[in-house]
Amino acid sequence: MSETTMDEGHVSEADDAGDELVVSPDKTETSEAQSSQAAPAAGDERLAYRSLFQRMFVQPEIGAIIGVIGVWTFFWAVSLNFGTAGQTQNWLDTASTLGIMAVAVSMLMIGGEFDLSSGANTGAMGILFILLIKEVGDLGGLGLSIWFAVPISFAVAMLIGYLNGKMVERTALPSFIVTLATFFILRGLKLGMSKLLTGQISVTFTEDASGYDFWQPIFAGEWIRNEHIWNGRDIFYLGFAIGGAVLLALSMCEMHFVRRESNSAAGLPIFGAGAAGVGAAIFLLHTTDGVNANILAAAVLGISVLVSLVGFGMWRYEPVESAGSLGLTSKIMMRIGTGLALVAAAIVASFAIDSNNAETLFFPFTVQGLRVVLMMALAGGGFTLLVIAANLALRVNPTTKLFVSTVLAATLVVFAFVIRASAEATKFRTELFSVFLFAALGVFVWSVLSLRYQERRAEDETADALGMRGLGLGVLFLVLAVVLRHLFVTQAELDAAVNPARFSVRMLWFFAFTAVMAYLLARTRFGSWTFAVGGNAQASRQVGVPAARTKTQLFMIVSGAAWLVGMLLSFRLSSLQAGAGDGEEFEFIIAAVVGGTLLTGGYGTAIGAAFGAAIMAMSLVGIQSARWNTDWRFVFLGVILLLAVIANRYIRDQATATRR
Amino acid sequence: MAQRALLELENISKFYGNIIALEGVSTKVNAGEVTCVLGDNGAGKSTFIKILAGVHQQSEGSIFLNDEEVMFNSPRDALDGGIATVYQDLAMVPLMSVWRNFFLGAEPTKGFGPFKWIDQPKAMKIAKDEMAKMGIDIRDTEQPVGTLSGGERQSVAIARAGYFGAKVLILDEPTSALGVKQSGVVLKRIVEARNQGLAVIFITHNPSHAYPVGDRFLILNRGKSLGSFDKDDISQQELTGLMAGGAELQELQQELEEAISGVKKN
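Output (structure tokens, whole complex):
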């Protein structure tokens, strides 16, 4: 077996040309031994192995998911109440209606078309619905029961979608133009019909309409958090959170390291001892309030996590034979130096600038605002440089990686204490503090594990399947933990006068709609055809895809989504302005693009668009809860759009580049 | 009259208004044979393919498939008749994966009624196996088609046509955009498809690609047929000469005779 790389574009070359492709310089022998076991079992030997993170990174949604985490963390870190149940309800409410439309619009965009009437359509459906059921007063009251108004308005929505699709098909004009016409027609109809039938520019319906009691909970039911008291919540919340974290950690190990041929029992007692330590530390943390006891518990927790994972690794994974000796290149040193300097500057800034000074320094910054921005920028840059240094170090050898990671972890710990010392609000003194400590722990433990166990560089289907299942279950546990915490309130929180949160049923519509659309796109013929007509309409026609029908169906999906949003709006507000929804079509398109959908069609996902909508909703709500001037929100949105487009382009290039 | 060939065309003409795109073209294609259609740009090759593929309908003349006169009103009709066309642009969606492209428009499904989903593991396995039959070991069927080389893409398209039960395979200029080595690969695929019993119609303007693989040659010039020749009746030089020659049939025939006598002397 010789070390050759793959010849470009050799189609006729025989199968036996499978030489080792991935040979890391420092462990040639081990990786060859490895591949001779792993390669025949699975996959094509000419495929360079892509690790879990590399594979996840090229999913079209990934930009939006990272964006959601980033934007959430940003607003959580700069505002006092972002992240509470009330604020979460706030942005989820906005995200739901925006997201339903963004998902539908993103499907249409994948199919290569636009619908500029989608915004006006949401309002039109609501107004049509209300005009149909209006019982009291005025001319236009048809006084239909809601039982009739719901299906009739839905049928009209389907008709609008069908007509949009047919017109685009028959005229062969760009859908931009055709739906622009529909937009103006709908806009005019909304105003004209409202004024003609009610004499007003807004329409209202009352709870007297027959069928209201049945339909109201379906479209506008609410879960009022403060009415659901469950004092035992925290046990389940913590249980799921810890269980989820453990599953995530173990699954990542499973997917990252090389499995031993036979497990070594020696690791089990160590794993057990570590796990017991983790349990004890959590119990200690939960039962004591004293600062010293907490710090002790945290120390025990950190050491126990390290011990248990090392034990777990000893039991399951191949040890590294030689980790090499410390080899710091000038590149790494330079990044460490700059990174540390930036973090130091952030620390200086945090102490030097008064965090209570709300005086406006220069437009639009206050002194305390400037402090936060400075700290975030400096520390963020510094930590990013240190992470880059750690990645560079991994290419040298695991020992160097451990060294750089330790520097990174130590810096994180120092920064955590700086925040604790300089911040005023309890939120920052406790929550932000612990987040930094956990980050430090994660970085350190991971690099110790990388030092001790071999990184997997070959396909291992059983390990990957097990890891993926563990990862899925772990995420499910974490989601459950968060959901429990948001849906129920404890008596203690009520006594502390927690802000009310009313979770609307529209969120369930949003999740369900996204799930159905994601399934349609990824798993059905209709989904495949959607990608095909957007990617190459002529080619799909030539192989027998009903291109026109597919596009018309996509227009009908958008119109159906607009109907759903119209229902949600009507039942929520019971009154709609004639201009409702006008101009929102671009927000839907932005959310879809932020979510990774390609403007030119043929690429994107439904889930990405849903996350894109979440990013936009979080930004709108977050700016308010950070008490910034909301006049500036569009600047923020513009910047997000720009960043998202650049990031998505990069991800797409990575996804489509397979020649190495 | 003897048994007709698998696909026979008699006096096919196509007019677009007063423009004569194709006039009186006849040829036949047998199973397990390659019929090459040669002609310079504007000779009517595209019209010829589009009629066979069901994109356009002939204005005059008849098509016989399996001894029955047929009329293809849509690309679906032609596909159902077993005529698969591999277009110059390959009818592929670059951003979609190999297996999705392979099955596009005819995805295998599971489930019932409105709850049908694509049988993805089956589709991926078939795509990989069919490519392997063509002698191509595709690395990863999830790979976007846009990342394949030109020859590999041709092979996906040919394998796809073969898998979906094509009896007649039409290849539109498959070698025109390829380098020498890649062209060789595609020509090899054509021979393999023929050996599997397919009737192949190979459209090209390159006689040196056509001659080695063809069993019969139909030469078009300015919408008219310059004749349909069996391989035994024509040499590569004659073929080249015909393609390069003038419009007048008489002249060409003279040239042809001269050329033939020249060959005999050799």
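The interface with chain A takes residues 53, 55, 75-76, 79, 85, 87, 89-96, 100, 103-107, 109, 116-118, 120, 135-137, 139-140, 143-144, 146-147, 149, 151-152, 155, 182, 185, 188 of chain B (CB under 8 Å).
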